[in-house]
Design goal:
With about 270 residues, this protein is α/β, with parallel strands linked by helices. The chain is built from eight helices and ten strands. Strand 9, helix 8 and strand 10 form a beta-alpha-beta unit.
Length: about 270
């Protein structure tokens, strides 16, 4: 296998969803200044011709839209999630579609894309919803070390797109029960959360002075809160295995909910340490 060490890797399965993911990935590669590598995973020799044609068709479509990007394609054998995770070790970004109905075994989302986001050794974007929106980048904020990576990624994504950033943090009790709480220390909880949110953003605001930031505190469950905030957004960014307001992110209900219901592409960032 030959490809650039710093590329955008895209899982392709012959479905329109994966073709949309490839187009999104090609545009992102332009912003990042790196090549694109398309991967079709096929374990049936009888479908080798279909696999090669699927990769070729998507590559040609992407090249027609953005001819200045270097695009390579590959037909690999094995399990799709395992192969994409293996390629993530040398990739800048892995991109997959939100649902697969192609001609190959194990179309790329549900379990495949969820598995890739859980185990990839670089950021993963699941392309879903309105992939051509022109709104802000949205990031879910908590108090984990991994989330700091997500916030950094979100600032970079907003800066590359010349758009604003919306940072959303859930109050600690909002994760468990939706609604307003008549607790005596409610104001103290909110004040601490607002201070934490400001601290999470302060350093990156200095590093990305051209990115306008809007802060939002959530009194509801994070999944609908993030999905609502991401309406007309270009990208929603979340961390892997978060803690705090977005407890258990990714392998728990929050990230799974976001990956299945967000109205825009979702970037999942995890620690590789």
């Amino acid at each position: 296998m030959t490809r650039a060490k710093q590329s955008v890797v895209v899982g392709v399965d012959g479905s329109e969803s994966s073709a949309q993911a490839a187009r999104w990935a090609t545009a992102e590669a332009v912003r990042l200044g790196v090549p694109v590598h398309l991967v079709v995973v096929n374990d049936d020799p009888a479908r080798e011709g279909f696999a090669k044609q699927a990769a070729r068709d998507v590559a040609e479509r992407c090249h027609r839209e953005l001819p200045d990007v270097a695009i390579t394609d590959e037909v690999a054998t094995g399990h799709p999630a395992e192969e994409l995770v293996r390629r993530s070790d040398g990739a800048l970004l892995v991109v997959v579609g939100s649902r697969g109905h192609g001609v190959f075994r194990d179309a790329l989302l549900g379990g495949i894309s969820i598995s890739v986001t859980a185990h990839a050794r670089c950021p993963v974007v699941v392309v879903r919803g309105d992939a051509a929106a022109s709104g802000p980048v949205v990031v879910g904020v908590d108090n984990s070390a991994t989330n700091r990576l997500a916030v950094h990624y979100a600032f970079g994504a907003a800066n590359r797109r010349h758009t604003g950033l919306v940072a959303v943090q859930a109050l600690p009790d909002a994760y468990f029960t939706a609604g307003t709480y008549p607790l005596p220390d409610r104001q103290e909880i909110q004040t601490r959360a607002e201070l934490h949110l400001a601290e999470q953003l302060s350093g990156w605001c200095a590093d990305y002075p051209d990115v306008t930031v809007r802060r939002e505190m959530a009194n509801e469950h994070p999944v609908p809160t993030l999905c609502e905030a991401a309406r007309r957004a270009q990208l929603l960014v979340v961390g892997h295995r978060g803690r705090g307001g977005f407890a258990g992110l990714l392998l728990g209900s929050v990230a799974n909910g976001v990956l299945h219901h967000a109205p825009c592409p979702v970037a999942v960032i995890r620690s590789t340490g």
